Amino acid sequence: MIYKTITLDGITYDLIPQKEKPQDPPKVARPRAEKGDEYFYRCSYGGVCKSAECGIKVDGYRHSIGNYFLTEEACEAANPTKYNQALTRVRDYIKINFEKFVPNLEDESQHGYCLWYNPALFPYLSCEEELKQVAADCKDDLDIIRTEGERLNNLNF
User: Fold this and answer.
1) Is the pTM of this model over 0.85?
2) Strand, coil or helix: what is 125?
3) What is the pLDDT of residues 21-46, one digit of tens each?
């Protein structure tokens, strides 16, 4: 249940009560290579790398974050680095500018607020004013997260 939404610069943010777990984002069906077949991913230095699908944790991790492509061309077209850098900047901004908010599940009078692009990506904020401040001060990065996230989700189709 969402108590209310606010819209800033044409982007709607959902204000979520802390006691309720946000819904998981919809699962995107991404193609995956058969065991032993190769796939491509962006390396930490930004280049295109390839690996054999072995069914191990690192393969699953790359697949789950969208850094997993069946063709070299699709991998070259992706820029997860831009997306990840924007995520890091917004998380750092929240950590630097606000005290860590830990939900108190026993106190129903408090509400937590989060950026609703993907509730697993950002920590809860303690009040609507903090949410508005993040939305205003991090607007460019939030735009990158929204648009690059959508683009990266659709590359393999």
Assistant:
1) no
2) strand
3) 545 545 557 789 999 999 998 876 66
